[in-house]
Structure formats: structure tokens, C-alpha cells
Amino acid sequence: MSSKSRLISSTRRFSTAAPCRDQKPVLNRHSRIITQPKDQGASQAMLYATDGIHSDEDFNKAMVGVASVWYEGNPCNKHLLGLGQEIKVSLQKSDLIGYQFGTVGVSDGISMGTKGMSYSLQSRDLIADQVETAAGGHHLDGMVVVPGCDKNMPGVTIALGRLNRPGLMVYGGTIRAGSCEGAPQLDIVSAFQAYGKYLQDGKTPKAENERYSTIRHACPGPGACGGMYTANTMASAIEALGMTLPGSSSFPAESKEKHDECASVGPVMYNLLAKNILPRQIMTRSAFENAMVLTMILGGSTNAVLHLIAMAHSVGIKLDIDDFQSVSDRTPFLADIKPSGKYVMEDVYKLGGIPKILAFLLKNKLIDGNNMTVTGKTLGENLEEWTHKYGELDSRQDVIRPLDNPIKSTGHIRCAAFLVSVTKFLFYFGSIFVGGSVM
């Protein structure tokens, strides 16, 4: 008997074959390795005991992992288990099987200034390894990744790039701005600065009350740190890459839109599986150029440099600091957002979100709109739909400055190749530095 005959005879009677024109597309390209052959009975026995399998026919469905970087001890991540559950429901409504699993994370905000920070960057690679391991080991057909804090975003995206199976990212969302008497808009940096202010004011009882009030109200609920720090920078960059649904990076954690986004994942994932749209078809060289441009426009974290380089490496694209310098040299810095400015990501949401900014950049030919995205449409098509629904970026707002009145005419990031280092200019320090420095 030929090997092909043995394979056919060993498969279940409800095995999915190549579809005819009137049949549904094959979605279970990977999971069928364990769900179809009779000689994989042990695999099937264990799957029968899971909540995803209710009948024999369920073995013909695609199995999609929902990897949430959930843990309770951080506002950026505390709500991700719930978002993952909402995504699972959406997958089930689209006749897909969702299996949620967790991975670890490290909060830079909590570990800052301690030895705990030595675990921060390595958590990115640990997250990537864990997501890839779970998906690869269990032959999952697709992945929805749900990160919330700093290194989470590049970690899960690196995993998607390595796996190269249909997948998308749902960002956990930004935190609301905090407030207290005398400080109408607080964020995590307000808490860092509160101690310096306390010392400056002479450690008086009044200074202590102000310090305590600031740290008590800086973080009012779930969501990532509110300024253009690493989390919001990377979420925005990954949206520009095309690996999220439109608006994902700027929907606050507690917003209705964030829950609506989770509820919309099922049909999107079904389409990705049906058309076999893969991360490496989305995360192209041009898409990374878009991500770099948006990072410069927003005054994003310098961490974007090392993370985007690692993400590009995961899909076989060479990216280095010279590429960032080239983009920085031709891209203005426009966003008046913390830590260098006065606004937070919640304000970006209020003006219409990252898609409005991307549409503004596309209109001014600063990014490429021809790249494929997880919607199955190009970035340009997504942005056209967004502006048709919500309008274009309002020129009267002052969160994003006009091109003819930038904060800085070139990008805020400077790459010192001879030192293999990256520096960031904050506009309120001015554009010229005089004096010595220690490297």
C-alpha cells in the first residue's frame, strides 16, 4: 500500500479534503494533523476532554489560540483575561474553536529602579518563545494575541512572525488619565516625578500630601501607561504594520470600542484562515517603514528601535539603526504627547484615533497605503473606510501639529552608529546641548 493510501485509510470518515467550489474552504491546515488520522487517537481523546470539542464534527473546525499576557499584579495586564474570553466567544460565533492560554510579563513601571528591571527585556523573548511553543506544539491553525504592557507587544508579534500562521493582535488598551486637586491630568510619569517634587518642596507635610495624592490617583484603572511610552508606541507601530484591526492601539482599555473590537475578531480570523493570509505577507519591508514613520511622528519610545529590529528579524527582514536614522532625517516630530508633551493616548482616541493620524500621513505621502493588513484589505482601504465614517484629522486640534508647524522638523531619535546607541530628543529641553556627557 502506498503512503498516500495509508494516509487516506487512516483518516476519520469526516476528514476535510480539498474543497470543491461549493464547499467551505479548508481552515484546519495545522490542527488536522492531530484531529484527523486514526493513529492520533490519543490526541483526539485528550481534545474530547476540552471545552472546545462537543461533537465529532468539531474536529473539522479550525483551532485558534488566544494568547493573553494576563496577570493580576499590573494595571496594563489585569483585564486581559476578560478580553481574551470575549475574543473566544467571537471565535465560537464564527464556527472556530478558541483555546485561551496565558504567558508571563514584567511591568517596567513597577520594577523601575530595582534589580527587577533586569528581567524586563528578557520577558519579551520569553513571551515570544511561550506563544510560539504553545501554538506550534498543539498545531493551532491561527493565533489571536492579547498583550498589554511594554515588552508584551513585540514579544507576541515576534511569535506571530516566527509561526507565520494566520493571526492578529488585540492591544489591551491605554489607561485613563488620572487626576487630583491641582493636577487635572496625571499618568505614571507624574508618580515618578512626585518624589523629586517632594524633595524640591522641602519634605514638608504639604509636600507629602501632594506626593501621596499624585501617586494615589495617577493610575485610576486598567490599561497601559497613558503617554507615548513603550506600550502605546509599540501598539501604534504594530497597527501601522497592519497586524491589528483599525483603532486597536488607541481604544482605551475600558472603552466600548475595545469590547466591540474583541467581539469583531471572529469574522476577521475566519477570513484570515480562509484566505490563508499570513503575517509575513503583512509584515513587509514597506510595512516596517510605515511603523518607523509613525514612531517618529508620535515622538515614540526609543525602545521601538530595538523591538522593531527584532520583529523584522522574526520575518526575515534586515532592519538596523541606519534605517531608523534615515527615516528620522526625513520625518517631522508632530505629536504633543507625554513624556515630552502635555497630552496622553486617551486624547489621541478622542480626536479619532491612530487611523486618523495614519490617514493624514497617507494623504501627505509619508506612508505607503498598499500594504496588506489583517482585515484582508490594504492599509489605504482601511483608512478610507475609517475617514468615511469618522472624518479626517481636525486641523484645529493641537495634539498632532500640522506639517508646516512641527515640534521638530526631523525625527526625535538620533542613532549614534559608532556607539551603537540610540538617543531621544525631548522638545522642551531645546534643540542644542552644550557641555560634557558620560557614556
TrEMBL record:
The keyword Aminoacyl-tRNA synthetase is annotated on this UniProt entry: no
Alphabetized InterPro entries for the sequence: DHAD_IlvD/Edd, DiOHA_6PGluconate_deHydtase_CS, ILV_EDD_N, IlvD/EDD_N
Keyword Glycoprotein among UniProt keywords: no
Residue span, Dihydroxy-acid/6-phosphogluconate dehydratase N-terminal domain: 61-382
Transmembrane segments: 416-438
Cellular component aspect of the GO annotation: mitochondrion
Pfam families hit by this protein: ILVD_EDD_N
SUPFAM superfamilies associated with the record: IlvD/EDD N-terminal domain-like
Similarity-based family: Belongs to the IlvD/Edd family.
Protein name, as recorded: Dihydroxy-acid/6-phosphogluconate dehydratase N-terminal domain-containing protein
